[in-house]
Amino acid sequence: MRRMRFVAVAVLALAVVAGFAAPGSAQEKAKPKTIELSYSIFFPPTHIQCKTAEAWAKEIERATDGQVKITIYPAGSLTKAPQCYQGVVDGISDIGMSCFAYTRGRFPLLEGLDLPLGYPNGTTATEIATKMALKYKPAELANTHLLYIHAHGPGILASKKPVRSLEDLKGLKVRATGLSSKIVAALGGVPVAMSQPETYEALQKGVVEATFCPIETLKGWKQGEVIDCVTDTSAIGYTTAMFVVMNKDAWNGLPKDVQETFTTVSREWVAKQGKAWDDADAEGRAFVKGLGREMISLSDEENAKWISAVKPILDEYVQKTTQKELPGKAFLKDIQDLLAK
Question: For residue 87, which of 92, 102, 152, 294 is within the disulfide window of CB 3.0 to 4.6 Å?
Answer without folding.
Answer: 92
